[in-house]
Model the fold of this input.
Amino acid sequence: MSSWVDITNVSKNTSIFNNKSFEQKSTLGKDDFLRILTTQLSHQDPSSPLQDKDFIAQMATFSSLEQMTNLNKAFEKFANQQMSQFSSSIGKEITWTMNGAAFTGVVDGVSVQNGNYFYMVGNEKVPVETVTVIKKISSEAK
Done:
C-alpha cells in the first residue's frame, strides 16, 4: 500500500484561497451541525448503530441551535425597530432630568453607542432613559 495522498480531490475550502475570516471559520452554524449529523449517520457501523439516547441528544442540540439562531435574528429586528422608534422623535422637544435638574431641547438626531440609545440635542447626548417628556413643537414657538 502506498503512503502517497491524492491531492487532486482536496477541496478548495481547505486551501489558502478560502476568503472567510478566522471567526467565520471557527464558528459552526446549523448547516454545519446538520452536515456533521448526516455524515455521522451515513458512516455509522451497522453492527453498532447510534444509540437512541445519543441521537435524541444530538437532535435536541440541533433544535436548540436553531432556536438560538432564530432568537438572534429576532433581537436584530427588534434593535432596528428601536432605532426607528427613537428616530420618530427627531424635531420634537424633549425634557430630561440629569442630577436632579430638568433640561429642555429639540432633538436633532439619534445615536447608538454600545447598545445604548441617545437623543442628540445640539452637542448634548441625552440618554433616552432620562427623558421625561416628548412633545411636538407648537407652531407659536416657531
Remarks:
- The chain has a mean pLDDT of 77.
- The helical segments are 22-26, 30-42, 52-87.
- The beta strands are 93-98, 101-106, 109-113, 116-121, 124-127, 131-135.
